[in-house]
Amino acid sequence: MDERKSWQDNTGLLYEFLNNYSCEWPALSLEWLSTQPGSDSFPVAEFLLGTCADGPRENYVYLVDVTLGGPHGVSMENREYGVRSDRMGFEYGEGKPVYNIRKRIHIPLGEIHRARASRVEGSLLAGCVCASGESIVFDRSVPKDTEPIDAGLRIKEGDGHESVVARLCGHDSAAWGLAWSLFDGEQLLTSSDDHRICTWNLHKSPHDTSGGKSAWKAAKTITPVSTYSTGHTKAVQCVIPHIDHPAMFISAGDDGQICVWDGRISDHEHAFFPVVKDPTDAFNAVSQNKFKAHLLATGGTGTDVCIWDIRNCGYPLARLSHHDKGSNAVAFNEHRDYLLASAGAEGKVVVWDLRDIGKEQSAENAQDGPPELLFVHQGHTTAVQDICWAPDEEHEFHISSVSDNNEWQLWSYVRHMLCIKDTARRLHAVISCTHALYPCFVPLSCSLVV
Asked: Is residue 442 assigned to a domain?
């Protein structure tokens, strides 16, 4: 029995929820925007997806509603992996369409490398960066009475150009990083192969070419407010805003550097602090812990996912080892400061429990991986390009992932895995405390395999 068939046969034991959709084209970017109550007690999640079709094929940004199986997944009797008419995975939804496109925008600028939406309350803007180096900002609002374009991801009608707000022109080569300010819904960051980071403010329009005949040409063209070109010596793959400080941001590059930038410093050549410099790795992604802002996680061409303390980054706090190849994305959980997910180039998505770093384990358990290894998702067969946790607390253990063979998956591992580890941790603490108070205390011999 091959590994794929073995995984499918055991999904009912490993997952509370599992859904696999085959898109028409591959995607490098995926973002879980929100989760709202739906009809018949099935919640609906909204996603932003950008295609990566090469050659003459057209690329699109999609806003897609996905019907979920409930906050606690799918009932046990339906946890059987099967091939449905529109998808693969568990049965739920009573035969209703699971995927509904709410909006589609044609992007005639090459492959979409990253698409992200503003999270500032009241903002309905989103953007994408492309292989051409340009970025597009668009309005993602959809009237409430609008019918879905189609119950799938294979549509040809409409281009959505009327939603385009602005074109951002400031990079000379392919752009990879894009992130919105957490404090201002009209400020964003981009990074590119040209070693540069650009900051943008839609309030300010240094150059405006509106007035063209088509909606696409009528979109105003904006140049960057600031350009930072001295920190990195190679492509800047990722840029994110600092969790706590509106003027600061963090970048990761192919030169093995993680830089922290301060936009308040007028001299851009001295506005950065290279907090990490690892010549053995080229970083693809960086994530900041929203509860402990001094903690960073990085993924790159090396097989290890690294945890860093931004206050002292001379060496990583921990190296998390389980991927066979590099990591394309890393993401801290939105609600648990100790959970981290990483997307591997070999096709695995690994969930880590940082509380167990350095924990002692038996030789038998060590064969399955390090103690901080919580779960390994093996639903993809090729490199996983992007991952995201659910933003709402009710679905806090749900993850969505997309790979370069067109597979888009939503899944949630069974929660008792985390509960078992919590129970083992508390039991170990009780035994240690009792032994400290009563040195003669000898616990019964037992083995708890996590």
From this structure: no
146-200: pLDDT as tens digits: 555 544 444 344 566 778 889 999 999 999 999 999 999 999 999 999 999 999 9
Beta bridge partners of 125: 139
pLDDT mean over 114-122: 94
Residue 413 in any domain: the answer is: yes
* Distance (Å, whole) CA 383 – CA 312: 32
Residue 158 belongs to some domain of the structure: yes
Amino acid at 293: A
Structural domain containing residue 182? 1-430
Measured in Å, how far apart are the chain's first and last C-alpha atoms?
A: 25
Tell me how crowded residue 216 is: count the other CB atoms within 10 A of its CB.
17
Q: What is the pLDDT at residue 267?
A: 85
Whether the predicted model's global pTM rises above the 0.85 cut: yes
CATH code of the domain containing 305 = 2.130.10.10
Look at the chain and report how many structural domains it folds into: 1
Q: Measuring CA to CA, which residue among 253, 350, 345, 340 is closest to residue 288?
A: 340
Q: Report d(CA 226, CA 363) in Å as an integer.
A: 54
